[in-house]
Amino acid sequence: MRLLLVEDDNHVAAALSAVLARHGFQVTHARSGEEALQALVPEGNGFGVVLLDLGLPDQDGYEVCGKIRKRTSTPVIMVTARADVRSRIHGLNLGADDYVVKPYDTGELLARIHAVSRRTVQEDPVAGGEDAVLLGPVRIELPTRQVSVDGAVVQLTRKEFDLLALLAQRPGVVFRREQIISEVWRTSWEGTGRTLEVHVASLRAKLRLPALIETVRGVGYRLVAPAV
User: Fold this and answer.
1) What is the pTM of this model?
2) I need a labelling partner for 75 at 20 to 30 A (CA). Which of 99, 100, 113, 220 fits?
C-alpha cells in the first residue's frame, strides 16, 4: 500500500517511515500542507492512506484535512498531541477517518491504518465491484466462499477461506500475525501462533501454489499475486 506521511519533523518522519516500510508500506513524505495537497493530485494519486500531522508550518492541519476531503476520498488519519474530545470531534467532522494522539504505540498506529484500509475495501470492493477476487489462476468467490485454481474448485475449511480472503484484500501488503489472528480467529495472539502457521501451510498445499503466501520473517504474511 502507498501511504502519504505528512510530517514537518524530518527526524520523526524518517523513523516512522522506516517502521512503515518494514511492514510493507511505500511511504511518500510531505513536509507541509501544500506539499501534501500537491502529492494527492490527481484524485488521491493512488495513496491508500494519508497520515496527517496537525502541527504543520504553512497551514493548520485541520484546514489541510478539509481540503484533502474535498479532493479525494482517500482515508485520513490525524496525528496530534491534542488529546481533548473537542479536538477529536472537530477532526472527524472535517472528514478524518481516525485520530491518533501522541505519544502513540506503533502497533496501535499500524492497526488503525489497516482498519481504515479495510473499511475502504469493504465500501469499494475488489475486482471492479464484482463479488470475486482474481489472482492469476486463483479465483475467490466471496458470496459463495468458493475458491478455484485454473477452474478447479479447491475445498477449504472456513478458517482457511477467511485467511485467504483477508490476505487477498491487499495483495503485496504485509499483514501482521497479531492482526491476522484478531481478524480470522477473533482472539489474541497468545497461544494461537502455531495454528496460523498450520493454516498457511495447508493453504499452500491445497492451492498448489507455495509462493502465493509469502512469509515475512518477524512480521507476518503477504499474498503475492502469481504472474499471469
Assistant:
1) 0.56
2) 220
CA distance 62 to 134: 39
Contact between residue 30 and residue 39 where contact means Cβ atoms under 8 Å apart: yes
| Strand pairing class (2-6; 213-216) | unpaired
Which of 123, 122, 156, 124 shows the shortest CA–CA distance to 139? 156
Residue-wise pLDDT tens digits, 86-123: 787 788 778 788 888 888 888 888 888 887 776 555 44
Q: What is the 3-state secondary structure (H, E, C) of 42-55?
A: CCCCCCCEEEEECC
Q: Which amino acid is at 104?
A: Y
Note whether 83 and 108 are within 8 A (CB).
no
For 204, phi then psi, to 5°, come to: -60, -40
DSSP assigned state of 173 = P
Grid cell locating 28: 511518500
Q: What are 148-174's pLDDT values in tens digits?
A: 999 999 998 888 898 999 999 888 889
